[in-house]
Amino acid sequence: MARSRSLPASGTLTSDEWCARLQGTLESFDEAGGHRTLSALFDSVPLDVALADVVLPYLHGVGSRWETGDIGVAQEHFASSVIRTRLSLTLHHEMRSSGPLAVLACMPGEKHEFGLMAMALVLSRLGWRTCYLGADTPTADVALAVGSLGPDAVVLTSHRSTAFTAKGALLRRMSEQTTVYVAGPGATDDPREVGGARHLPGDPVTGARTVDGQWRAVADLVASDPMTDAVAGGSGDALVMASPLASTGDGSPEAG
């Protein structure tokens, strides 16, 4: 869990105090109280800060308490269900009709989707349209969405590195159509292990900002020199490689 600190525009409450409020309601099966706490949090704290400093650390704590036996399966499922519902409703409310488009999905067998949901929400706040496919999505179906929608970016997550290596050929084909990012504990910065996709290190909020920053750098480059798009053949990944914010080996932006 992130170190407790006072959050901007949240009065005197620290991140730990917000987490304690969620724990006190959700882990005692108080759905209405949990929603009131989440409403107060999202009303008083910027969404990206709320996700990075409260919601995701709280969910990590729920998992840890379940593993140690401090809470039961029912409490873990209940808390996760309420937060998943709230984030889904927020994501629906944030839907946009214009802007760059991102397709987001968990790799086959991957059930952990809260980080991906957080990334989709932050991208929406940054002006993106999102096609959120959710947990345990077959990569063939992701490829179908990519072919149908022509997104500006694809984000795939997994806790297992084998999920990426097993689908390396398909990831490589998708990378020829758009910029594909991999994230989560299973992702690495070795292109041979992730089918040539680009690694997003760090937390989901940072990852969303990286995707947005790299796309905008490319858009600015094309706007200033339209021939760049023609030289790159329209490939989003080629444009990222040509941009002044091309990713370094560890996935962080690097000034050209």
From TrEMBL:
<dbReference type="Pfam" id="PF02310">
    <property type="entry name" value="B12-binding"/>
</dbReference>
<dbReference type="Pfam" id="PF02607">
    <property type="entry name" value="B12-binding_2"/>
</dbReference>
<dbReference type="GO" id="GO:0031419">
    <property type="term" value="F:cobalamin binding"/>
</dbReference>
<dbReference type="InterPro" id="IPR036594">
    <property type="entry name" value="Meth_synthase_dom"/>
</dbReference>
<dbReference type="InterPro" id="IPR003759">
    <property type="entry name" value="Cbl-bd_cap"/>
</dbReference>
<feature type="domain" description="B12-binding">
    <location>
        <begin position="99"/>
        <end position="229"/>
    </location>
</feature>
<dbReference type="GO" id="GO:0046872">
    <property type="term" value="F:metal ion binding"/>
</dbReference>
<dbReference type="InterPro" id="IPR036724">
    <property type="entry name" value="Cobalamin-bd_sf"/>
</dbReference>
<protein>
    <recommendedName>
        <fullName>B12-binding domain-containing protein</fullName>
    </recommendedName>
</protein>
<dbReference type="InterPro" id="IPR006158">
    <property type="entry name" value="Cobalamin-bd"/>
</dbReference>
